[in-house]
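Q: What does the assembly look like in three dimensions?
Context provided by user:
Components: two
Sequences:
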Amino acid sequence: MSHQQKTEGARITRRTRSAGLGAAAVAGVTPFNIVRAQGAALKVGVILPRSGYLAGIGQDCQRGVDIATGVLKDLGMPALQIMNADTESNVETARSRAEKLIGEGAQALVGAFDSGQSSAIAQVAEQKGIPFIINIAAAPPITEQGYKFVFRNFPTAPMILRDAFIDQKEVFAAVGSAPKTAVFMHVNDTFGTAMAGGIGAVMPKFDMPYKIVQEIAYDPAARDLSVEISKAKATGADALLMVSRLNDAILLTRELVKQRWTPMAIFSMGPGWYEDQYLKTLGKLSDGPLSFAPWYDPNKKLSKQLEAALAKLSAAINLNTNHVYTFEALLIAADAYKRAGSADPTALADAIRKTNITDNASIGPGIQFDAKGQNDKIVGGAIQNRGGKLITVAPKAAAIGKAEWPLTPYDKRA
Amino acid sequence: MPVDIYLNVAVGGILTGLVYGLMALGLSVIFGVVRVVNFAHGEMMTMAMYIAVTLFGAFHLDPLTMMVPIAAVMFAFGYLLQVRLINPFVTRPEYMQFLLLVAVAIIIINSLLIIYGPDARNVQTSYSYDSFQIGPLIVDATKLYAGIAAVVVAALLFGFFRYTRQGTAIRACADNYTGALVVGLDVKHLYALTFGVGAACVGAAGTMLLLIFDVTPSAGPAYTLLAFVIVITGGLGSMVGALIGGVLIGFTEAMAGLLFSPSAKSMFAFAILVLVLLFRPQGIMGKRTA
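A: Here is the predicted structure of the complete assembly.
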């Protein structure tokens, strides 16, 4: 063999090798991708406040994740590979955990219960081009930034307030009574501030029978809320209008008992007062508050499936917003993955944008997103704590009982 | 606003401040003698709170009756911590002491997180929701018991340092380290004893504070910061100053919440700290150093 022949032979061999590698890329890797899209689980990073002052609610949201696998399988949805992360109830930690999850291969993100933390994750998701489905967070600006990869299946603060006032009027009409004055107490975090801003803008449109005589903002991580209740009690208001978290809702109730004040009604327009930890910690003292919040329709088929799945997981826990909206966020991811046929982030985001799930669990016509990535069809509900259970009392379409009115005095509860 | 509201809030703030003061007393005692700033102070208190939660869960023992045994356990913990870990650092640079105690704090937080999880824990005693009404004044029973217990423990501590031989020896160490060595005092043992006494204070304060507040593993750093604010306000190393500082901070937080915004409570506490640092850097009861 001549030198030239050897060289040509070698050149041909390299070309062949290159062509072979190229062919492998086309004929080998592409089919692999297709197989992966059809058979492999979608990697979903679930970011929640599992520790810190929001830990109770974060861990409650986790129950929505725990029941998802079985229910999604029953619904014929593709499998999800859940990658858990903890925000430690901290905005900066939420941001770094989102970056870490994406670095570890998460193809979609779900979370993060809190508006401030969700805003931080949204920035990361948008920057990295990974779809982020918000389970719970109400601050309006999150979906007002023109993000292409951020979707929220949860009402904004003005939507929550709109439905709260509608449902309150429905309750007042049903019980034939209404408060004339109220104290508005709210946490001073992103959610609480957004709700406080919304109250001023939304309430005048509804001609409510009561007026707000005082607004009291407080720290959601406060250890002692005695001063706040003293201040509210001093107004002599008929009702308490609350925007709380969990620990502060428990502290506030304890202070109401200690300071011997039972208002006519407690209206919560956020989490805290319907949580299982609230019901268990306070027992009889937890009865009575009305929560006007995004809720599930107990009459829907999927709600019954979720109730059954949760009962199997933990019989003592009532199904609530945390479980339902966290589950629905995962449902949206699985549904989009199924339709997209690919884990490609852009394809996934396009599929999420075209979501049309009508047989969901939350109250309202279903899950669809507008151009901003917001589900603007969600309808809020009113629920009342009664004997450790949560009774939906409004709207009529989802109600399973009538509100008990007024609050039984705390010192008269056996 | 009715006058009785001011009275109720002021009394509540003072009672809570007394327990804060007892917590800070431990920090002040340790610094006053050993000259080591305990950056794991709040975490040691949450540890005591969790011991109380565990004993309450297992045996339904009232926190007020558990106060003495838990203080004893914390004394042993503090004594051993000083002898085994901190003592070699007493003569080392302050940044090393800082790093060591921050490491201890992180270990405590994470151990509690592993053992108890992140949920808030509390104890439900038969008087958890009780209050006493005297005319227009409504006093929270748990705060009253905790406040009285704080005064009793603080009085016992003053008595110990004032009237016992060990207490006198500890004060001698604080006044003149070299002199204490020259006259043959066992300084190493006395330092450990002091650290143990400081930890016992924290144990007692934590047990009482559990009557008022829930505990979470992450609560420690906030208590450490609060203890610092109190002892710097009252005078680092001064026992009376720590109690006065505690009451002042508790009262200020409560009244600021009432008169201004509850969100601004901490801001006013820190404003007092800034004022003290500006106009009396040694603290209200502290001694000016040359």
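Follow-up: The radius of gyration of chain A is 25 Å.
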